[in-house]
Amino acid sequence: MASSTPKNDPYLFPKTKSSVLPDPSSFFSKDLLSNPLPTNSFFQNFIPKNGDQAEYFHPYLIKSSASSLSISYPSLLHNSAFLYEVFEAKVIISGSNRSDSHTRKSHLISSFSDLGVTLDFPSSNLRFFLVRGNPFITCSVSGNSITISTNHAVRSFSGNSLSTKYTAKLTNNQTWLIYASSPIMLTKHGDSSIHCGGGFSGILRIVLFPGSKPEFESILDRFSCCYPVSGDGDFTKPFALEYKWETRGSGDLLMLAHPLHLKLLARDNTSTTVLDNFR
């Protein structure tokens, strides 16, 4: 019996419905739906249920909600059976919601790569470039107000003379640095909130200050202008893995590496500089 299916048509897997994992396509932009969606990806917790499960982007745990992104520098619980990182929202970045009732309320994945994913928040004009191994959380803001809140009180808050860098010291002894691509007026509101009244368009970068040594802060200052938007692993060279980053901004890119990575870095790679004392 002759088949009724044309020979040149690609095979389409039958559709199925799952109560455990609903249709993931609603969390991806339309531009990405013409190709197969990734499975078992490093950002998959942004998709099941409401897409609000925490996901690990070294060195932070990150959790998305309807119009905000929560950042946790996780503490580690462990015993002989397992290791567990505890999510506690240390910093929450949110924007003012649009009054348009037709605007999408949840986040949208607009692009992804081997090592990075871009999260858009249409309701608040925020876009986050989340790349594994980058110590900065990078956010693109398009002309709206921004609120940075914490679950600890802000003990002190100060900025530089150019209004492009701010320092927030929390009562849990953590210090967070906030960098802006252009002047922004951030002010402390109440005990645990930092606010920008609106009208800012540009890049915000937020990073946990890793210690008390002044040279650490100067290193973060030096690399605050260059940020990655994606990263891929390249296996074209035999017996080698090369990481390639797409970057924006100016200057050099700062990335974190595991101790094993440092041992495997090619000694003849003149494009990479290891900062031995920066942790």
UniProtKB/TrEMBL annotation:
<dbReference type="InterPro" id="IPR040451">
    <property type="entry name" value="GH81_N"/>
</dbReference>
<dbReference type="Pfam" id="PF03639">
    <property type="entry name" value="Glyco_hydro_81"/>
</dbReference>
<dbReference type="InterPro" id="IPR005200">
    <property type="entry name" value="Endo-beta-glucanase"/>
</dbReference>
<protein>
    <submittedName>
        <fullName>Glucan endo-1,3-beta-D-glucosidase</fullName>
    </submittedName>
</protein>
<feature type="domain" description="Glycosyl hydrolase family 81 N-terminal">
    <location>
        <begin position="34"/>
        <end position="272"/>
    </location>
</feature>
